[in-house]
Design goal:
By secondary structure, this protein is α/β, with parallel strands linked by helices. The chain has nine helices and six strands. Helix 5 crosses helix 7 (about 210-225) and helix 7 (about 210-225) packs across helix 8.
């Protein structure tokens, strides 16, 4: 990972002129774009190019993301902020891409003051004020239903208010009490379902922490909105207000 960090400020990686065939191929692979109108798709393309011009990609473990991978990541990253603006991603530049999942060394001090060191398999990680680390699989089925890009960029939005806690800064007109009530009640219910070993449509990883619940729900909002609104309609309504989109109201 640190070798990749040292290469973050290499030449920019934006495709200088994206052919229509590449746009179409990448968009066809992203079902999360299905609800967008033609005008919104055009705005998303323009935002993706601006994103690529601003951010710097670095491959890890010998992997170099090609134009397809970079464009796919850019489109997915820009989808949540399509109606919010790229300023939401200001203040950092680096995106490190691994060929598949990767291992993160962890250090944890328990309640008795003992230090535990271990390794954790991961698909992505967001660093407060720093880069985003992502996995890339050529076969989308290898993601096992997860959308790691939307997940990690949701964390970035959450971190705009400080440490990720599932409570990103809300827009004018949104009600903090309503947000907390919707998410707190849903999180408590979801954790109880996981403890009862119930099968859930949401990734069980959402039970790890309120920040992970927000990120996983953000994934579901764009990739499986029908399931999210069925299980947690209050959360869906809050996310629709936050992202200023409604994936269930297709305009395609």
């Amino acid at each position: 990972m640190f070798a990749a960090l040292r290469r973050l400020f290499a030449a920019r990686n934006a495709p200088p002129d994206v052919p229509e065939a590449l746009w179409s191929a990448v968009e066809a692979s992203l079902s999360c774009l299905a609800h967008l109108s033609p005008e919104e798709r055009l705005r998303l393309r323009q935002m993706a190019l601006a994103f690529l011009d601003d951010k710097v990609f670095a491959g890890a473990q010998g992997f170099e993301p090609d134009n397809f991978a970079r464009l796919s990541i850019a489109l997915q990253a820009c989808l949540p902020v399509l109606n919010l603006g790229l300023d939401a991603y200001a203040g950092w530049r680096g995106i490190i891409v691994y060929p598949g999942d990767f291992v993160i060394p962890r250090r944890l001090i328990d309640e008795d003051g003992l230090l535990h060191e271990y390794e954790e398999d991961a698909l992505g990680e967001s660093w407060d004020g720093g880069p985003i680390v992502l996995s890339w699989f050529d076969n989308p089925a290898d993601y096992e239903g997860a959308n790691v890009v939307i997940h990690e960029f949701a964390h970035k939005l959450d971190m705009l208010g400080g440490e990720a806690d599932g409570r990103p800064p809300l827009h004018a007109g949104m009600n903090t009490d309503a947000w907390c009530a919707a998410f707190d009640n849903a999180y408590e219910d979801f954790c109880a379902r996981i403890d009862a070993e119930e099968e859930t449509e949401l990734d069980p990883y959402a039970a790890e922490h309120p920040a992970e619940f927000f990120a996983v729900c953000s994934e579901a909002f764009f990739t499986a909105p029908a399931g999210l609104v069925r299980d947690y309609p209050g959360v869906y309504a809050q996310l629709a207000a936050f992202y200023r989109q409604d994936p269930l109201q297709s305009k395609a």
